[in-house]
Amino acid sequence: MARYHDSVCKLCRREGEKLYLKGERCFSPKCAVDRRPYAPGSHGQQAQFQRKPSDYSLQLRAKQKARRYYGVLERQFRRYFGAAERRQGLTGLNLLIVLESRLDNVVYRLGFAGSRPQARQLVNHGHFTVNGRKVDVPSYTVEPGDVIAVADNSRQHTYFKQVAEDLEHRAVPDWLSRDSMTMSGRVLALPTRESMDIPMINEQLIVEFYSR
User: Fold this and answer.
1) Which end of the chain is more exposed for a tag (fewer CB within 10 A), N or C?
2) DSSP string, 31-60
């Protein structure tokens, strides 16, 4: 499967704000957005002085920002949008619910990974189970009632021992619950817009982009 292999810090700089793709580094003085607050490339510094962006440009940037924030490629993101359109309710909110329900995102939200890219790698390596069954597909969609847990044979890894010590400092959204003792979490309900804590994403602009 195709995957982005270049520096993820360039993605944050292109969008002009932090997408939190590097975990703790994003909160340190080493963050590329803080050090170089302009788009990458030879014309990056000039771009900030260009004329007012068009409606299409704003819509495109909103779509790209959401896609990069969740680590989804274009074709898959378009499929997610199609699924959101077929659901009842607001298409933009449905899209965000679909993205938030990805297993890699839930692993990140539960505090078992420092970033979504790291969560995706951990899932790919088979370190998590859903309802007692190993799942190594990051795009797996979880549902209310599902239990996500660190696999038994993975709990002895040095990484997860460190995570267990740090869990109390990692907050969990109200649509999830976490049991630090068993290194597991449960999906209590579908996420609401308020609980997603992603103010940088404007889902209405994404809907307008695909409705052109």
Assistant:
1) N
2) -HHHH--S-SSTTHHHHTTSPPPPHHHHHH
